[in-house]
Write a structure and sequence with these properties.
The chain is an alpha+beta fold. It contains six helices and six strands. The chain has a single domain, classed as ANL, C-terminal domain (GMP Synthetase, Chain A, domain 3, 2-Layer Sandwich). It is about 35% helix and about 15% strand. Strands 3-4-5-6 form a four-stranded mixed β-sheet, with helices on both faces. The protein has a two-stranded antiparallel ribbon with strand order 1-2. Strand 1 and strand 2 form a beta hairpin.
């Protein structure tokens, strides 16, 4: 409550994870990540926000195996690479993120591209914290090649309107 500081403060993400786009706009990764997960439901289980020193925000998407399989009418035990390649899953994610973008057109909130990942976060590589959260920095460092793919013309990259 801005009028009553005694009520405490609201946690709005880790400032250390925030970054600037080439436009000079600051991206609030915590806020954007939560919004992207909601917009991409039930396909997205979690996501990592990328775009430091880039023209636009991108997402590395950890798909929900159950949610994404359901969208495509696939068996819940379908292997992740097959789920990620499914066009219904890809279109559901693109549609959800495009709807989000329609309401959030600013460069620091707009998601320009997304890449569905074929491998879940790796706890042994510190991609998941002790509390079970995604370690944004560890994912971006470990998956540098995928970040480069995200910002390429690769056919696996979803461009979001």
């Amino acid at each position: 409550d801005p009028d009553d500081p005694a009520k405490g403060i609201l946690f709005d993400g880790r400032v250390a994870e925030d970054f600037k786009l080439l436009t000079g706009s600051w991206v609030s990764t915590g806020t954007l990540r939560v919004a992207a997960i909601a917009a991409g439901a039930p396909v997205i289980q979690d996501a990592v926000v990328a775009g430091h020193d880039r023209d636009e925000v991108g997402l590395l998407v950890f798909p929900s195996p159950v949610g994404a399989a359901k969208v495509a009418g696939l068996d819940p035990g379908t292997p992740l690479p097959e789920i990620v390649a499914n066009q219904e899953v890809r279109e559901a994610l693109r549609t959800g993120l495009a709807a989000y973008n329609a309401e959030n057109p600013g460069s620091s909130a707009r998601i320009g591209r997304a890449l569905l990942l074929k491998e879940p976060p790796n706890i042994d590589a510190n991609e998941i914290t002790d509390k079970g959260y995604i370690n944004q920095r560890a994912v971006l460092e470990r998956r540098t090649r995928l970040v480069e793919t995200l910002y390429s013309d690769d056919a696996e990259v979803l461009t979001i309107a």
